[in-house]
Amino acid sequence: MNTANFPWLTTIILFPIAASLLIPFIPDKDGKTVRWYSLIIGLIDFALIVYAFYTGYDFSNPNLQLVESYPWVSQLDLNWSVGADGLSMPLIILTGFITTLATLAAWPVTFKPKLFYFLLLAMYGGQIAVFAVQDMLLFFLVWELELIPVYLLLAIWGGKKRQYAATKFILYTAGGSLFILVGALTMAFYGDTVTFDMRSLGLKDYALNFQLLIYAGFLIAYAVKLPIIPLHTWLPDAHGEATAPVHMLLAGILLKMGGYALIRMNAQMLPDAHAYFAPVLVVLGVVNIIYAALTSFAQRNLKRKIAYSSISHMGFVTIGIASFTDLGLSGAVLQMVSHGLIGASLFFLVGATYDRTHTLMLDEMGGVGKRMQKIFAMFTTCSMASLALPGMSGFVAELMVFVGFATSDAYSSTFKVIVVFLMAVGVILTPIYLLSMLREIFYGQENEELVSHQALIDAEPREVFIIACLLVPIIGIGFYPKLLTQMYDSTTVQLTARLRNSVPTLAQQKPEAPKISLSAPEIAN
Question: Do 330 and 298 form a contact (C-beta atoms < 8 A)?
């Protein structure tokens, strides 16, 4: 069977969406049939993702592959255009993996199960579309459509303050999306030709002031989703009210959309503006790492503690993007995938712990490890991964960003020393708040009032299986990073070369590289 011309990405995007439309017609009262249906659809789509990339993706090719383009509005050169390269391919696989496990994590959902699984499958296709589409206007549309399932999942199945958290989420993210729409339209109509194709937009000769303005707008939009302080406050509230499967999607996939777009739109399409904004990204990344780590240390609510931990770890992504080194940018992509796996595992365990203790306050826990030994072991292992223990994926990713930025020749030695020192402080703070969290939950004397009122049963096989599935790639990447880095190295090396050309002092080190017409400042100053 010849599958070379088969529309793999379009099928992968539309299959779960089309399957979700059949859920209302499934005869099911208690949700048992729907949950099996959704899990099977998720497994099939994930299998299609793996097969498509295994058979049709060349790791050594830095350009877009599996490209499909179908006319939509010919007058505006608006097409259904999808493709995958080293930036999008790992995140598409991550999306399929995390969403399938989140479907299994949603097994206990009994309230409006048809609507819940309908939203989960619709979100599945929408998230993959964000990473695959190659048309700016289409990107904006799928970015917006993906927000609706998240809003409903928070507003209907969330905690006591779910309406507040869902409203705050939609206001922040939808407000940021306006900058994407304005930027896309402005870039499309710039110059003599009108196009929304990302590759064509990246080749346009934009004036420097124009690039700076568009870059700033995109940065605001993607800073909300990443999130970057001070546009982060929606995330702790959303995590504080979400259920376990929604936690996994928020931490595992949604935050990565911001990092991906920051690389795809800002760095790749506006490289000259990136030369000016790179020091700003570094400073914002450091603020994320330190401020969020300190705030996490002070939290007494378990969900909010892990939420601020996520914000802190995403600071390494922005620093890696701004490093102007192959190693730093590669570390940023690896950190997105690594944090997606680790964040999903931690939040799933938070949900499992809450289901048994019915409290999120650390002061009300203590000694539960005696009765929940499996959960204690899994929570400890995933926390070790989060604090970047050697042998785990988080260690490799953060080390790559550290070394990549420290060896960058785009910044002065003084600036690098200060930034690396502050990054190190953030790394030191992480084990402090994570280990103290473990101590308060699992060690010490049992809370007699908690034990007398709650059945602290240990993890069931389904929960052990989900964590085991997440730990396999976490440990596998930790011991053999090339397992993942070989998927995108050719793309990040090509992008880094283009970004270095945007800084005159760096471009001069490689006289054979073609120089661009727009000037940029010497970042070392």
Answer: no
Instruction: Report the 10 Å Cβ neighbour count for 27.
Output: 6
Backbone angles phi, psi at 166, to 5 degrees: -65, -40
What is the DSSP-derived secondary structure letter of residue 191? S
Amino acid residing at 60: S
Structure token digits, residue 275: 């030369």
3-class SS at 4?
coil
What's the confidence (pLDDT) of residue 325? 93
What lies within 8 Å, CB to CB, of 209 at 6+ separation is: none
Query: Tokens in use for 517?
Result: 């017409």
Query: Alpha helix (H) ranges present in 161-270?
Result: 162-188, 198-203, 208-225, 234-241, 244-249, 255-261, 268-269
pLDDT at 130 over 50: yes
Q: What is the pTM of this model?
A: 0.92
Contacts of 339 (CB under 8 A, 6+ apart): 251, 255, 256, 310, 313, 314, 317, 394, 397
Task: Please write the tens of the pLDDT for every residue from 2-49.
Answer: 566 789 999 999 999 999 999 999 887 777 899 999 999 999 999 999
The tokens for 514 are 């073609």
159 φ/ψ angles, rounded to the nearest 5 degrees: -85, -155
Among candidate residues 207, 200, 222, 257, the one with its CA nearest the CA of residue 78: 200
Question: What's the per-residue H, E or C state across 416-441?
Answer: HHHHHHHHHHHHHHHHHHHHHHHHHH
Q: Which amino acid is at 291?
A: Y
CA–CA distance, 330 with 386 (Å, rounded to integer): 19
Phi, psi (rounded to 5 degrees) for 20: -65, -30
Rg (CA), the chain: 23
- What is the enclosing helix (H) or strand (E) of 92? helix 89-105
pLDDT of residue 453: 66
Enter the tokens of residue 284: 């914002």
3-state helix, strand, coil in the chain (%, to 5): 70, 5, 25
Give Dmax over CA atoms of the chain in angstroms.
74
DSSP conformation class of 19: H
The beta strand positions in 10-154, using DSSP E, are 65-73, 78-84
Q: Which of 96-100, 365-369, 467-471, 476-480 has the lowest mean pLDDT?
A: 365-369
Q: Which secondary structure element, helix H or strand E, spans residue 152, and what is its range?
A: helix 147-157
Report the alpha-carbon distance of residue 485 to residue 334 in Å, rounded. Answer: 7
| Contact status, residue 476 vs residue 469, Cβ threshold 8 Å | no
Give the whole-angstrom CA distance, residue 371 versus residue 376: 9
C-alpha atoms less than 13 angstroms from C-alpha of 352 in its C-beta half-sphere: 29
